Amino acid sequence: MSKLRTIGWILFFTSSIVSGANTLAPSVRLNNGLEMPVIGLGTYLANEGECERAVRDAIDAGYRHIDTAYLYGNEKEVGNAIRSKIDEGAIRREDVFIVTKLWNTFHRPDQVEKAFQKSFENLNLTYIDLYLIHFPLAYKQVHKDGSDRTPQSVDDVNLFPNVNGRPVYDDIDYVDTWRAMEGLLQTGNVRSIGVSNFDIPQMERLLSQVTITPVTNQVECHPNHNQLPLIKYCNDRNITVTAYSPLGRPYLAKNNLAINDPKVQAIAAAHNKTPAQVVLRYSYQNGAIVIPKSTKQQRIKENFNILDFSLTPEEMNVMNSFNNE
Ligand SMILES: NC(=O)c1ccc[n+]([C@@H]2O[C@H](COP(=O)([O-])OP(=O)(O)OC[C@H]3O[C@@H](n4cnc5c(N)ncnc54)[C@H](OP(=O)(O)O)[C@@H]3O)[C@@H](O)[C@H]2O)c1
Ligand SMILES: *[C@@H]1O[C@H](CO)[C@@H](O)[C@H](O)[C@H]1NC(C)=O
Ligand SMILES: *[C@@H]1O[C@H](CO)[C@@H](O)[C@H](O)[C@H]1NC(C)=O
After folding, report:
1. Is residue 72 among the annotated active site residues?
2. Which residues bind substrate (predicted)?
């Protein structure tokens, strides 16, 4: 059996761990020895007024991993939800894994700690579990009021600097940004660091130049873009892959999305599951951590409920046929 299959089966067999009223998802051990739950709640576009409730519903449903980012503008709501669940006695801080991300306008090494500090204050938790470089590219830092003034605070920064709609990049090497990320670990306010949207050549270059290996690479990953080569590359090096947009972002209504396909509907029917559950299960069985986003309570539950069935090799082959990117 391949290493990935082995990991998949280990995850499958440990999935029946029960704690309190909820069945929780199992965790994977990261390369720094810490543990990360294999199902998390995504929060991109979980907007003001709905994000806090969604995170509370997710904790109730058994999620113990929440994915946010400075960019999403909802770190305060995520933090409020987690603190309220801690105050209620439903969870302890160490039971839940909180991920946030360094935005592209803060890649200059002297800006990394300042940007982290802002996210840390927004979340208002005793520590952050994982901080990611959101993208392997840097934007120039300019004031959001359009003036030439130097932004005085993180919130003064234009997050999408552009000229006629084209992003204005800055010439900062992500290796230098990563070294500043390594420095954050010494503060004790963040326990793990990782990257996002890195391809294999970028991973290769980073790993050859730095001392601390990222614990995860968070990338777009779903049947239409299954990332099997990147998953193998990372897992061979004890780096997890976190699958973002694991449902394929159905709201973009792209053609041929697996979640809408009759073949996936048939597989779902055979297991008494939904197409969304089959799609999530596929990336999970390939060895990825999945972070579906929903703000609807029923779907939050549905997306978590992928641990009590498994796709056969034939069904995995059908799912493999959707890969087209
Ligand atoms: N690192 C990065 O660059 C990056 C980029 C993108 C995303 N992410 C992270 O990954 C998370 C997930 O990705 P995503 O939000 O882009 O896309 P996604 O999880 O693939 O899809 C979310 C969309 O699917 C709908 N949905 C949720 N559950 C469903 C179900 N069971 N059946 C049918 N539709 C369902 C949601 O609507 P409702 O909310 O109305 O249910 C929402 O519109 C993000 O929230 C974010 O945390 C990271
Ligand atoms: C990955 O790293 C962790 C922590 O050091 C270790 O316990 C685990 O055995 C490693 N796994 C593999 C497959 O090397
Ligand atoms: C931050 O958390 C502390 C303790 O949990 C709480 O007393 C305080 O009100 C919170 N601050 C904000 C701005 O929410």
Report:
1. yes
2. 134
